Amino acid sequence: MGVIGTIVSIIVIGLIAGALARLIVPGKQNMSIGMTILLGIVGSFIGGFLGYLIFAKDSGDGFLQPAGIIGSVIGAIIALVIYLRVRGRRS
């Protein structure tokens, strides 16, 4: 696929996962599109890490594997809830 294709696919999956997480978690999140993409990318790594811990798949490739879209959304939800809790304490 190449480097450019990998980067574009990471950005697209990050946008989809981040947007779905923002739709699922109640409340208002003041985030830009860039922050939504970053949320999805972080969620993908969290979902991949949790998938590795639970199912012990892809151990030869390391524990931080890009997850499927479901794992990415679950990880993005976890990251968004943590972000909202930390941001809420500062306000």
TrEMBL record:
Regions crossing the membrane: 6-25, 37-55, 67-86
Protein topology in the membrane: Multi-pass membrane protein
A Pfam family assignment: Transgly_assoc
Keywords: Cell membrane, Membrane, Transmembrane, Transmembrane helix
Gene Ontology CC annotations of this record: plasma membrane
Localization in the cell: Cell membrane
PANTHER family in alphabetical order: UPF0410 PROTEIN YMGE
Membership in a protein family: Belongs to the UPF0410 family.
Protein name per its UniProtKB record: GlsB/YeaQ/YmgE family stress response membrane protein
